């Protein structure tokens, strides 16, 4: 049997089965009962510091770039 035919037969059967099982495994891992807290924490990570304004040094650093964003 040629190398191509051997690899083609492997890809058509066992590798396809492996990839399907991997795909199902990823969904099972994502939808597991203990993962809800982790997913909610990750989804809300960008909103953690919204309750207070940015630091003074950040405002000064970004103030110089304000004129670049304005259309004149």
Characterise this structure.
The chain is mainly alpha-helical. The protein has 4 helices and no strands. The longest helix has 28 residues. The chain is elongated, with a radius of gyration of 26 Å. The N and C termini lie far apart (71 Å). The model has no long low-confidence stretch (mean pLDDT 79).
Question: Which descriptors would you attach to this protein?
Answer:
elongated; 72 residues; single chain; mainly alpha
* Count of discrete alpha- or pi-helical segments spanning 4 or more residues: 4
Number of strands: 0
Gyration radius from CA atoms, angstroms: 26 Å
Order of helices and strands: HHHH
Q: How many angstroms separate the termini?
A: 71 Å
Helical percentage: 55-70%
- Unreliable stretches (pLDDT < 50, length at least 5) are none
How confident overall, as mean pLDDT?
Answer: 79
User: What overall geometry do the principal axes of the alpha carbons give?
Assistant: elongated
Q: How would you characterize the largest beta sheet?
A: none
Please report which band the strand proportion falls in: under 5%, 5-15%, 15-25%, 25-35%, 35-45% or over 45%. under 5%
Q: What oligomeric state best describes the polypeptide chains here?
A: single chain
Class inferred from helices and paired strands? mainly alpha
Overview in brief:
The protein has helices spanning 3-30, 36-43, 56-63, 66-69.
């Amino acid at each position: 049997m040629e190398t191509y035919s051997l690899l083609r037969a492997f890809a058509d059967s066992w590798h396809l089965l492996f990839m399907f099982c991997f795909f199902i495994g990823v969904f099972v891992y994502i939808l597991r009962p203990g993962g809800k807290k982790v997913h909610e924490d990750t989804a809300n990570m960008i909103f953690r510091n919204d309750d207070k304004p940015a630091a003074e040094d950040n405002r000064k650093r970004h103030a110089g770039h304000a004129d670049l964003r304005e259309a004149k």
